[in-house]
Every structure is written in structure tokens, then in C-alpha cells.
Amino acid sequence: MSRLVVVSNRIADPRKAAAGGLAVAVKESLQRTGGLWFGWSGKIRDTPDSSPEHNDVQIQTAHNVTLATVDLSQQDYDSYYLGYANGVLWPVFHYRLDLANFDTRFAAGYRRVNQMFARKLKALLKPDDVIWVHDYHLIPLAAELRAMGCSNRIGFFLHIPVPPPLIMAALPEHEWLMRSLFAYDLVGLQTEADVTHFTHYVEAEANAQPIGTNELRAFNRTLRVGAYPIGIDVDEFEALANGKEGRDMFARMREEYSRRRLLLGVDRLDYSKGLPQRVHAFRELLANYPENRNSATLIQIASPSRENVDAYEVLRRQMDSLCGEINGDYGELDWMPVRYIHRNVARKRLPGLYRASRVALVTPLRDGMNLVAKEFIAAQDPADPGMLVLSRFAGVAEQLKEALLVNPYDTQGTAHAIQKALTMPLEERVQRHATLLKRIRDKDVHWWSSTFLKDLEATPRSEES
């Protein structure tokens, strides 16, 4: 059996508890037959780029998995990671052209680091390795590997959404990026909508020709594209809910909020998550449905994210102001409408918080998938489940049709959906939850990784394309 080589911007030690999503799937896939996980160490070197030890590969062994990491210089970190990956690709792929900084130095740094990654990785590869590259940081990696003579099967999975063709075309480097994607053999996207956007883009901009189901021909290469919605480990998350920390959190929440109904949001502090719109919708709920005053409490967890980027500092100040205004206008001595928490909450405690909540608000303006929605479903008591209010612009909405789907820009409509969730009869909640739970079980994280890798293994090697 071929060795699996996983490449991602950051790696996780398989000996430690995984945080979910990519880490869970990759750990399982690598440990099955042994493999290599390659990526950035997370460290920034003080030595200059010309130093002999700059970008040396650090090797560790974790059971039957080899971990290979490289450090970045400050210049590379600023241009590749902060500048292009998070200052250009992230906002553009989330439809926020107004927040992108199209500095040509960033694109040069992005390509330079991908070339360096390819050079370091190529020295570690075996002829029959199967390579699985992850996310927007590493779009051109396969093209750089091909230029160095690599003919291995290489698959790519994009964890963020694909924008419509005209938004994609606003990227000054869009032609180069899309040509780079054709160096892969299989490209996995989160949703069928993403596949449609990508297909329409390459047909319009590169005159790509469909040659079969989910196969496109352009740049003298054949590329297979498909939707592989990432999932969670449902059994593992249910076990966390029934574990000591999960049960303790549930008991504490039920005791502290015994006279309240909890609404919950769990997000990174990111402009794609629709947090201000969510708070406005909660304010509309209190204004238009006064029975919720002194009754409903919104707990909004917004964990820190890229705090050295100006747009995030602006968002943090906005959230501080909005939550303070609601508490000032509607709060009582014994009731605050919003509990806003700007820090991380331990993963083992989250299932108890999910289960204690009557409603989860997962209302991003745009999201590749959003696993919080699936975690909330997995953590519920099937006999008395909470209800999910879900943005139609989250990738997960393609799967979770039985949630209450909303347009997060429509704050009145979202408030109405929250009220419907709070007043939904038990029988309807049970029926909806049972269907939602089956959906996330059928396509869990194990299905995601095994299906993608099976399809990649079945894809002809590059020289056969």
C-alpha cells in the first residue's frame, strides 16, 4: 500500500488529542499505514534567509508517523502567511474584496514559500507516495513539485469556499492560481456549489472542457473535481458530551441558568462569521418578542483570531460596543441579555455547553463548511434536543436542510427564526434532530477522509493524464 504524505500549513502531533476536523481525519489516515506529515512548524527564525540553517527540516517520529516541519523567516511569515494567505486569499474567497490587500510583494512571498516547501518536501518523497495537500495556503504546491519532476498522485482539498467566477477573477494572480490547481490529480471542495463555481470559472477563463463526470481538461492536463463535505467524529463528540467535563459543564449551565433559555454562538472572531449581524438579530428578538426579555440569554464565544490584522481589531471593538449597548438597554440587575466571551473555551467543555443550549446560532456570512453546526447536533439529548438556526451561506447548509435556514443579512427574519426555534414543539424538534443526526453520521470525518483518499488512489498518475 502506498505511503500517505499529508501537507498542510500547520501540523498536529498525532500523540496528542486532536481538536477535530482536519487533525482527526489526518491522524487516523496516517496512523493506519504510517506516513509523513509536512508543514510549517509555527516558529519564526531569527536567522536571515541566507543563513545555512535557514529552513532546515526538523524531523520527529510519533509512533508510525513522521512529522517534518520547517521554520519561516519573518519576511516569509509577513508575505506568505499574513500578507497573501490571510490578507488576500481569505477575504477574496469569502467574497470580501473590500478587505483584500493586493500588494504584489505578498504574491511573490506566497510563491517563494511554496517553492521552498516543495523543495524540502521533494527530498523526503518516495516514488509511490500519495500526497494530500490542504487548503488555500498551498494552492501552488503541486505545480512547484511537478516542475521539480514529481509524478506522484497529488490531491488537494480546499477547506474554504470557492467564490463565483467574477469575484475569483478580481485576484490579480487568478490565472496563475487556477493553472496551479490543474497540477493536481484530484481537487476536493466542500460543497456542490463550490464545484459549480470552480467549473464555471475554469470554463470561462481557461476554456476548460468537461470530459466526463466531474472531470475537466485544460492546460494539457485532466483534473477531477468533486464535493467532499468534511464531517466530525460523531462518536467521539458524543463521548465528550458524556465525559466528566462535558457533564460538569452541562450541570453548571443548567443550574446557573435554570430560569433562562440559552442561545449559543461559538466562533472565531472573524468577519466571515456574521457576528455583528447575529447580535443585531438578537436585539430584534428582544424588541419584537418581548416575552424573551429576562428570559433568553445569548452566550457568544468569539475566540481570538489573527489579532494583528486591522480588520479583526475593528470587529472586536464593534462587538464590544454592540453587546454593551444591548446589556445597557435591556439588562436587569439579575439578567444580562448577552454574555460575550473573547477567549477560547476548552474543547472538552463545549459539548456540555451545546447540550445546555436551547438554540445554536450558526449564522456566518460565508463559510466553507462550519463544524460547530455538526458538533451541536451530535451533543444534543435526542429526547429533548436543542434547535439549530443556520445561515444558508454556510457550506454545511447543503447537508442540514432540517435546520432553520436563515439569511444572516436579514436580521428581522433571523429573529423570527430564533423565536420559532425557541417555541418549537418537542415532537418537531425530536424529528428534525433525528434526521440531522443521521446526516452527520452518514458523512462523518471518517467517510470524508476515506472517500477522498480512495478516489485519489483511483486517479491515474500525472504522466497518464
How would you describe this protein?
The chain has helices spanning 22-33, 74-93, 104-122, 141-147, 165-168, 174-181, 192-206, 234-242, 244-256, 275-288, 310-330, 350-356, 372-379, 411-423, 426-442, 445-457; strands at residues 4-10, 35-45, 58-62, 65-73, 130-134, 153-157, 186-189, 209-212, 215-218, 221-227, 261-268, 296-303, 338-341, 359-362, 387-391, 404-406. The protein is α/β, with parallel strands linked by helices and 465 residues long. The protein has 2 domains: 4-231 and 446-464, Rossmann fold; 234-442, 3-Layer(aba) Sandwich (Rossmann fold). A 10-stranded mixed beta sheet has the order 3-4-2-1-5-6-7-10-9-8, sandwiched between helices. Helix 10 runs parallel beside helix 11. The longest helix has 21 residues, at 310-330. The mean pLDDT is 92.
Beta strands, count? 16
Specify the CATH architecture of the largest domain: 3-Layer(aba) Sandwich
Q: Looking at the structure, what is the overall shape?
A: globular
- Uncertain runs are none
Approximately how much beta-strand content do the residues carry? 15-25%
Radius of gyration: 23 Å
Give me the CATH fold name of the largest domain: Rossmann fold
- The separation of the N and C termini measures 22 Å
CATH class membership of the largest domain:
Alpha Beta
Could you give the order of strands across the largest sheet? 3-4-2-1-5-6-7-10-9-8
Count of runs of 4 or more consecutive helical residues: 16
Number of domains: 2
By secondary-structure content and strand pairing, the structural class works out as alpha/beta
Largest sheet: 10 strands, mixed
Give the integer mean of the pLDDT values. Answer: 92
Please estimate the helix content. 40-55%
CATH superfamily of the largest domain: Glycogen Phosphorylase B
